[in-house]
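Notebook entry, structure prediction.
Reason for the run: the old model in the group folder had no record of what sequence produced it. Starting over properly, with the input documented here first.
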Amino acid sequence: MQQQYRRKAVSSFVRRKRFSLFMLVGSSVPVALTLIASTVFILPRLGSRAAAVNGDCTLIVPSNPLSAQGLATPYQLVATHTANGPCNESNRAQAAFVQSAVIDPATGQISIYNPLVIDQGTQPAAAPVVAQLPANGVVALWFGSNGNNLTLQSTKGSLIQSRCVNGGNGSIFGQFAY
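New structure, fully documented this time:
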């Protein structure tokens, strides 16, 4: 009787130690999910010490911006407050754009022109194309930015010449001007 009891005890002990693939998979999946979640959500926040991107940039409007030569002159992007860091056209969080519509009053045709925006102090990779403006054509300009605030800066009275509106009563619009 003792031997039978021992055999049962030994056999049940052996059964408990049997390797189970389901047990291995069942315990490894939560561990893998925990590692993935910590890698994706927690580690980037712990290791990121990058400086914040300057969201306040200024666009320098060239002289005579509504003329063919003014449309072909690159607009320059610069930081509004240099202490907050630089502004770069290649940075998607700061990039600015200028768009122009030219209306030919004789035909009613509307043409779109996108003047070039470059970082201040740089040269364009290729010479900008000079737009062909119709006689008595009406030119409109729009400005925008992916940053927080876009301020327009005049060159030789360019904002007054082109009637550009940057805001009102000492307050800028934000990401948009016209």
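Summary: The mean pLDDT is 82.
The old model has been moved to the deprecated folder.
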